[in-house]
Design a protein that fits this description.
This protein is of the alpha/beta class. It has one domain: Rossmann fold (3-Layer(aba) Sandwich), CATH 3.40.50. It is built from 5 helices and 5 strands, in the order βαβαβαβααβ. β2, α2 and β3 form a beta-alpha-beta unit. The longest helix has 11 residues. The radius of gyration is 12 Å and the shape is globular.
């Protein structure tokens, strides 16, 4: 299974990726502009924007399609929306993780 860290355009995402050091595959994702090369080679994924009314369901689909078992949402708006759907994610054994304050991208 993989881990998804959002806010890939932030330094905090890279700090968290280095700190996790779990041996699991770690994907970085963002709804902001990403380098196309990184998306094409699979090291980054484009995530839905939190302004989308179906944000949580789109994130769930993204997680299921990519074998993601843990999500670290580094932006407050993403975290808040995902926490509202925590039960839904738990039904699919996807853990929504709260990063430490030093990793928050807001």
């Amino acid at each position: 299974m993989s881990i998804l860290i959002t806010a890939a355009t932030s330094a905090q995402a890279y700090k968290l990726k280095a700190a996790l050091n779990t041996g699991e595959t770690i994907l970085l994702g963002d709804y902001l502009e990403l380098p196309q090369l990184m998306v094409q080679n699979g090291t980054m994924v484009k995530t839905p924007g939190p302004e989308n009314p179906s944000f949580a369901h789109l994130m769930l689909t993204l997680a299921l399609d990519n074998g993601i078992s843990r999500i670290y949402a580094l932006r407050h708006t993403e975290r808040a929306l995902l926490q509202e759907a925590e039960t839904l994610f738990a039904e699919f054994d996807i853990e929504l993780c709260t990063p430490g304050k030093e990793f928050i991208a807001d």
